Amino acid sequence: MSVAPGLQPESWHLLSLLEQAPGLQALGDTLADLADEGHPVVVGTADLKYSNGLVRFQERHPDKYLQFGISEQHMVSTAAGLATTGLRPYVATFASFMALLACEQIRTDVAYTRQPVRLIGHHAGITLGFYGTSHHATEDLAITRSIAGLTVVAPADTAALAAALRASVDLPGPVYFRIGRGRDPDVYPAGTTLEIGKAVEHGTGSDLTLIATGSMVHPALGAAAALNADGYDVGVLDMHTVKPLDEEAVLAAARRSRLLMTVEEHNVLGGLGGAVAELISEHGIPVRLHRHGIRDQYSLIGPPTHLYRHYRLDAPGVEAEAREALLA
Amino acid sequence: MTAQTPVAPADRELIEHIEERALFARLETVRLISIAKTGHYASGFSCAEILATLYYGVMRLRRGEPDWPDRDRFLFGKGHAAATLYPLLADWGFFDAAELDEYTRLGNAFGDHPDMTRIPGIDFSSGSLGHALSAGTGMAMGGRLQGRSYTTFVLLGDGELHEGQVWEAALGAAHHRLGRLVAIVDRNDHSLDGRIDGVTGIEPLLEKWRAFGWQTHEVDGHDVASLLPLLRSLAEDTGRDRPAVVVANTVKGKGISYMESEFGWHLGWLAERDEANALAELRGAR
């Protein structure tokens, strides 16, 4: 979709936004593929179909697409009702409005009733940069992780998102997908597969294992490469499933590394760092854990790339954080 | 519109049966609350005729088959009145009535609010107010998407209408033209802290629903002879392209003189002698 003639090529508008977001194109396309294949998929959003790519689903399956308008709580409860009739609803909105605004509907109507609803919180973390605190979601992992029966998945890139959607299609219970703004650099090749609950191991590290989730896998891999080139032995775990946590993978890393560092675009309280801390302390493993993320504060506004640099959530930042932790 | 359809002689027996089952539901409510030593008498009593009319005169259900895919759905927005509903579900053979003898005991499926994961015949769990009309919207949408012709009934409390999500659902259901969705408002004029108009006023109610795009009806919620033809006509009107709401005017605590319109009986418990008197009063009213 092109902008008006005569404008500079760099100009863009809402309808061309998706061209910059392959991950969100994959969201709409993969769900449409699943519907093509006969899965009883219905898809809904709360007035964000251009922002989250679900317009691509609507184009292919207008009869299975539901527009809710700006009523996130209603959307989540409706999805629960839809699921009772045998359908598989996938509903999406900004992560802040999904996990925070509709938190109780997720708990009471979806998870407690054990309905196979798929909740997609997109533009999670600080990806909405200068839109401000209301649009940042640095609490959603903590909230969704504490809801019994809810699976929590944060894929690292476009291919992982498509794989996670496919891997979850037959799960009997509800799933929360935490995704970014669809512009994460590629970690995996197209067509990759992924097993819910099983971390992806990128090398082992006697010095340090970086345990990263979602958007932080790519910078963690960059940091690990730099540290390994410098003589350290650093591995990375892509913890795409935050719940149920791959306990075996974490415990193995805790036993072989002298330092663990979790990396998440989230408050260090209650998210991946919290999950890993709970696990290793319960097992009494004498390994040091450094939790890296947003340290219990509301993130600043600013362009996302600037925020990642500020919070040391880009590859050089993760590397610097890891070096300090290794030397501490 | 208040339904004043003349009642055919054949329906006379049915109306009497429904009235008898509403009394049964009230008596059972007293018994169950006696087991728990706390519960919602008055909220259940205000909707006893509505529940009995739906379950014995209107809804398509199959005895002993709570999961029959083409059954009409019922969602209990004001789920705190579940003790009045459970006996009716037992009547339908969805579970053994003896299970209610253990009402609210440790590990029992039957609590103050209905749980679809544990109680056959409960179409949706509730308790948190304001969600049910949305969930009912989903059931109505799901029925339409899959070519099923069932009707989804959602019983809302009038205090529940304070919740903003109800109005999100009212907008959404009208926008999606869900003609197979019927909301019933149990307008007993009270919420927990007193009279609705003193807590947060909701009138003019019919005008509000109408403005949201709903077909509106008003009825005496204790008059089975009015409820039955109205709710039946809504269930049978398969050509309707917008949702319908029935505002049922009721009396909170209906059936026990000192509970009627006394908001303190929203929650309570009757000791042995008072319970005996209450049961006698209920039976005597017949």
TrEMBL record, chain A:
<dbReference type="Pfam" id="PF02779">
    <property type="entry name" value="Transket_pyr"/>
</dbReference>
<feature type="domain" description="Transketolase-like pyrimidine-binding">
    <location>
        <begin position="21"/>
        <end position="186"/>
    </location>
</feature>
<dbReference type="InterPro" id="IPR005475">
    <property type="entry name" value="Transketolase-like_Pyr-bd"/>
</dbReference>
<dbReference type="InterPro" id="IPR029061">
    <property type="entry name" value="THDP-binding"/>
</dbReference>
<dbReference type="InterPro" id="IPR051157">
    <property type="entry name" value="PDH/Transketolase"/>
</dbReference>
<dbReference type="GO" id="GO:0000287">
    <property type="term" value="F:magnesium ion binding"/>
</dbReference>
<protein>
    <submittedName>
        <fullName>Transketolase</fullName>
    </submittedName>
</protein>
<keyword id="KW-0786">Thiamine pyrophosphate</keyword>
<dbReference type="InterPro" id="IPR033248">
    <property type="entry name" value="Transketolase_C"/>
</dbReference>
<comment type="similarity">
    <text>Belongs to the transketolase family.</text>
</comment>
<dbReference type="InterPro" id="IPR009014">
    <property type="entry name" value="Transketo_C/PFOR_II"/>
</dbReference>
<dbReference type="Pfam" id="PF02780">
    <property type="entry name" value="Transketolase_C"/>
</dbReference>
TrEMBL record, chain B:
<dbReference type="GO" id="GO:0004802">
    <property type="term" value="F:transketolase activity"/>
</dbReference>
<keyword id="KW-0808">Transferase</keyword>
<feature type="domain" description="Transketolase N-terminal">
    <location>
        <begin position="26"/>
        <end position="272"/>
    </location>
</feature>
<dbReference type="InterPro" id="IPR029061">
    <property type="entry name" value="THDP-binding"/>
</dbReference>
<dbReference type="InterPro" id="IPR005474">
    <property type="entry name" value="Transketolase_N"/>
</dbReference>
<protein>
    <submittedName>
        <fullName>Transketolase</fullName>
        <ecNumber>2.2.1.1</ecNumber>
    </submittedName>
</protein>
<comment type="similarity">
    <text>Belongs to the transketolase family.</text>
</comment>
<dbReference type="Pfam" id="PF00456">
    <property type="entry name" value="Transketolase_N"/>
</dbReference>
<keyword id="KW-0786">Thiamine pyrophosphate</keyword>
